Amino acid sequence: MKLLVTGITGKVGTTFLPAFLAEERFAGWSIRALCNNRVIDDPAVEIVRGSLADAAIVRDALDGVTHVLHMAAVKESPDLAIDVGVKGMFNLLEAFRVSPTARQFILIGGDCSVGHIVHDYGVPITETAPRRAYPGCYALTKVIEEVMLEQYRIQYGINGCCLRAPWIMEKDDFRFALSFSEQFGGPPWGEFLSAQDIARHAELGAVPLLRDAKGNPLKRSFIHVTDLVAAILCALDNPAAAGHLFNIAMNQPVDYAQVTRHLHQSRGLPVVDISTPYHSNWLDNAKAGQLLGWRPAVDTEQLVESAWAYVRAADDPRIVWYPG
């Protein structure tokens, strides 16, 4: 068996690789990575260098490949969105469908395809919920990717599977997502607070209690990177995954009231109430549990504690490869 991975140098890819290599079930498999701007240095990985937008390079990368794990993505980069999210996905699927060795195509999707906190569903978001992207090119491309994979299964009968993940956390990500000084991701505090208030909250080390459009504490789905990798390993070469879309999220969404209460009680951090126009969501993961036997291990308290306890080594600098 030969696995082709895109996005292997990213957050999920760098966690996936050692987990995959350590998994006894995949002993004897070989792994190839299609890399463009960044290249991984690991003797276990064969590297093909080039852009997903280049059909010839993609065809070469799929030569002899049995399984594809597509994770490469760009965020709000309109100059790259079509090359990676549209042409790249199309090139991979085209090469896959005509390959004599291809057996399974796994796409890592995102809950931006259902608009996560931007759109109000009112009920848990299952895999049958309508796709409703929020504004921006990234969410649009994730919808297009899901639809392309679905249609290639319908049109050509390929074995495709999509694992739809919400915001992926690792190391100290969640601490920075709640920071007023070195914020990672969104929502940008400047949309709700003055620069003076942001600076004051940063100095105090305060944490935000976000409230949704109804005034209730915001609830938002997250997933820890180790749980997403566990789901990938569950789906890889698994007949039960064939043709399915799976929500891969924590069992319950993160409740900002629970988070800030825990941080106030355990660390004495002050709490700042922030009203937002966003909607609470609940990405329902029951289908992945039923068909794949997957269960997330990290809950809200573990997410918080691991982020606040994480201490970076000198050779582990904090790098944000793209905003958002």
Task: Tell me what the structure shows.
The chain is globular. It is built from ten helices and 13 strands. The longest helix has 21 residues, at 78-98. The chain has a seven-stranded parallel sheet with strand order 3-2-1-4-5-6-11, with helices on both faces. It has a two-stranded parallel sheet with strand order 7-10. The chain has a two-stranded parallel sheet with strand order 8-13. The protein is α/β, with parallel strands linked by helices and 324 residues long. Strand 5, helix 4 (137-156) and strand 6 form a beta-alpha-beta unit. It has a domain at 2-168 and 221-250 and 282-298: NAD(P)-binding Rossmann-like Domain (Rossmann fold, 3-Layer(aba) Sandwich), CATH 3.40.50.
CATH architecture of the domain at 2-168 and 221-250 and 282-298: 3-Layer(aba) Sandwich
CATH topology of the domain at 2-168 and 221-250 and 282-298: Rossmann fold
CATH level-1 class of the domain at 2-168 and 221-250 and 282-298: Alpha Beta
Number of helices: 10
Condensed summary:
By secondary structure, the protein is α/β, with parallel strands linked by helices. Helices cover 35% and strands 17% of the residues. The protein has a seven-stranded parallel β-sheet, sandwiched between helices. A two-stranded parallel sheet has the order 7-10.
How do the strands and helices of this protein lay out in sequence?
Layout: E1 2-6, H1 11-22, E2 30-35, E3 45-49, H2 55-61, E4 67-70, H3 78-98, E5 104-110, H4 137-156, E6 160-165, E7 167-169, H5 173-177, H6 195-204, E8 207-211, E9 219-220, E10 222-224, H7 225-235, E11 245-247, E12 254-255, H8 256-267, E13 271-275, H9 286-292, H10 300-309
Parallel strand pairs: 1-2, 1-4, 2-3, 4-5, 5-6, 6-11, 7-10, 8-13
Antiparallel strand pairs: 9-12
Helix pairs in contact: 1-7, 3-4
